[in-house]
Amino acid sequence: DTGVSQDPRHKITKRGQNVTFRCDPISEHNRLYWYRQTLGQGPEFLTYFQNEAQLEKSRLLSDRFSAERPKGSFSTLEIQRTEQGDSAMYLCASSPRDSEGLAGNYNEQFFGPGTRLTVL
Amino acid sequence: AQSVTQLDSQVPVFEEAPVELRCNYSSSVSVYLFWYVQYPNQGLQLLLKYLSGSTLVKGINGFEAEFNKSQTSFHLRKPSVHISDTAEYFCAVRLQGGKLIFGQGTELSVKP
Q: Model confidence over A47-101: pLDDT tens digits?
C-alpha cells in the first residue's frame, strides 16, 4: 500500500527563481488537495482537484502560483518568481470522492510528507 | 466564515498524566470536525473525526474527543500520555468540497 508521495522533500531556491513540486496521490483517489503550512501555523487550503478539474482556488493562491492535474493522477504546483514569503511546507492530500451531505460516507484525506521550500 | 481556534499553543505534560487539548470552532452550519497529529518531518495523520451521532468519538492511540454543540467545542483528551505522543496536534473543520480549515496547532510535549 503506497501512500501519498511528494517530490522533492526539500527545495532551497533563490528569490526570483521558479520551482515546481509534484504530488502523487493514492491510486484511484479522484480528489487531490494542496495546502501550505508556515512555521508555527496550521495548514492553509490552497486548491483542490476532482480528477483533472480544478474546482476551487484560495485567495492565497496568487497569480504566481499555478496547479495542474493533467490526467487526473499526479499533480504539480508551480511557483513563479519566488519570494521569501513563499517559504513554507507544501502539503498534498488525496481522498476518494465522498457523497456530499451523507456524513457516513465521508472519506478521509490522506496527507503526503510535504515539500519544504526555503527561499533565500 | 468558519474558523477553528486552538486555545493552547503549547502543552507540556508528564508521562502517564492525562491531557486535554482544546479546540473551538465557529460555524453557522452542520460541521464535520477532525483532529490530526503531525510528527516531526512527517505529514498529517488522522486521529479521529466527528461526522454525526454520538458526541464522544474514539480515535487511534487511545485518544478521544467530545463534540459539544452548545459550546462549539471539540476538545481532545487522553487519560495517560506516553513519550511517543509528543507531536503537533491540529483541530480542523471540513467545508463543502472537502477542504479542511485548520487551527493553529498545539504542541504537546510529554516529559519523562
A: 999 999 999 999 888 899 999 999 889 999 999 999 999 999 999 999 887 655 4
Is residue A103 less than 8 Å (CB to CB) from chain B?
Answer: yes
Q: What is the pLDDT of residue A104?
A: 47
**Contact A70/B at CB under 8 A:** no
Q: Is the pLDDT of residue A106 over 70?
A: no
Band (A1; pLDDT cuts 50, 70, 90): low
pLDDT of residue A99: 55
Q: What is the pLDDT of residue A103?
A: 47
- Selecting from A4, A42, A98 the residue whose C-beta is nearest the C-beta of B98 gives A98
* The C-alpha cell that represents A103 in the structure block: 456524513
Instruction: For chain A, say whether B87 makes contact (Cβ under 8 Å).
Output: no
Alpha-carbon gap, residue A97 to B90, rounded angstroms: 23
Distance from the B2 Cα atom to the nearest Cα atom in chain A, whole angstroms = 13
Give backbone dihedrals phi and psi of B59, rounded to 5 degrees, phi first. -125, -160
The DSSP secondary structure of chain B, one letter per residue, reads --EEEES-SEEEEETT--EEE-EEEE-SS--EEEEEEE-TTS-EEEEEEE-SS-SEEE-GGG-EEEEETTTTEEEEEESS--GGG-EEEEEEEE-TTS-EEE---EEEEEE-
Choose among B23, B21, B46: nearest CA to B35. Answer: B46
d(CA A44, CA B95): 13
Q: How far is CA A82 from the centre of its chain?
A: 17
- For residue B108, the cross-strand partners are B11, B87
